[in-house]
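INFO batch 0412 | record 1 of 1 | parsing
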Amino acid sequence: MDQTNLDIYGGEPIPWSRAVAHLEAGASKGSFWLATTGADGRPHVTAVGALWVDGAIFFTSGSGTRKSRNLSHNLECNISVSLPDLDLVIEGRARRVMDEPTLSKLAERYAAQGWPASVADGALTAPYSAPSAGPAPWNLYAVEPVTAYGVATAEPHGATRWRF
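INFO prediction complete | emitting tokens
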């Protein structure tokens, strides 16, 4: 991994492990935000129910939603989240996940957080989801970081770019 200190005030680079510790603990202060671009070039940002698992951000989306339609044209995306002491933006490429072991693992993780997801026909399903997710079934996507940016919101302060 390549790390670049972006702090203009002389602070030390932020270790990637600081972000990972919060992500693994599920310690976001709010929503994860997914940014995509449509075929016409217009940007789109929406909140998603995301999980950090095995070095990637996973989220779900119904096939008819704008985010899914955008991803069908351009897999490049960003995911942003405010962690307890770090604002984080992760850039990467979304890939649809269809293998049974990963789907089952993520369904269990979502269920442990209170969303009773299960696997059906290469996607996730449940009695309900967020209104913005569209109707079931929901495709599972994974985004592995290519580049990430972190700006600390508490001591030790700093700003860092990581390239993976």
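INFO post-check: The longest strand covers residues 138-152.
INFO record closed
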